[in-house]
Model the fold of this input.
Amino acid sequence: MIINSSKENIQKAADEIISGGIVAFPTETVYGLGADGLNPTAVAKIFEAKQRPSFNPLILHISSSDQLNDLVTIENDIVYKLINKFWPGPLTLVLTKKDIVPDIVTAGNPTVAVRMPNHPIAKALIDACGRPIAAPSANQFGFLSPTTAEHVEKQLGDKVKIILDGGKSNVGVESTIVEITKTEVFLLRHGGISLEQLTEVCNLVKVKVNNFDKPNAPGQLIQHYAPNIPLKFLSEISDGDIKGKKLGALFFKENNSKIKFEQIEFLSKNGDMREAAANLFFHLHNLENKDLDLILVETIESTGLGIAIMDRLIKATNTYK
Ligand code: TXA
Ligand code: MG
Done:
């Protein structure tokens, strides 16, 4: 059930987490499905609710950088530079874990992903719990990420008792994930902090976006970020693909196509990439809610946050290839 984020309700949500339950809550990137990050049984409930086929590692959410030292060993000073610049915010750091972090959180990895969200309700919830909250995006495995409480309700409403409402997430795509070893920095997922922003702080970032997720690697693809209506790039369709179909469209800023659409959404009429990222999942949810046969999306220029947007769109279209 969606409830407002009054002080009492945040406490209620914290009590639910402390007693081993799961709660959906807003962050600036997307809504998270949270459980006590130090309680393995509670964390298992997240996988159950999301119907994840395997135990993918989760991000631990903290509300102050002091908490980081309880969870990880810091072996590279770049960590401090990144924290100073980007926390709280959409940057997740993958670091060597301490014993206190349960294996189910890291899927057996010696590293753990940690993030300090920049959202007052997320912060208040973590504070009230007094422990890190493990949280993936609050969607069913493979489907669209949620950027409003209603999006969470649509996919997980029957599985989560408490959905804290915090309005629309203003970054709108997931956090950027970087792994930091003693000597190197690897970018593992494009997200709310662009590669350009990262390289201003540490000039040697190696891009190592998971092979598993790479487009054009047949057989290795899994469903990801996909609406439940087929999605294709406008540039890749033929007349046969669209004939007789009820079509929706997602454009960047204007409609240059001659095709007739039942429903059109624009990411940013001003052509602002940040606004486009913030609205990406929101518009895809709007299209998914309409009675359409196919959604056509425009290719976005791959610079800055455009890389994160294209990453989500490529994975979503691959689902239907
Ligand atoms: O913005 C976000 O990051 C949102 C909000 C809720 O904070 N969370 C999110 O979580 O996107 P999720 O579970 O949907 O994605 C987490 C990603 C997964 O792709 C996972 O493989 C990666 O983080 N990850 C987690 N721990 C890792 C680790 N130890 N090493 C490498 N990758 C890791
Ligand atoms: Mg996710």
Q: What stands out?
A: The chain has two domains: 2-207, 231-318.
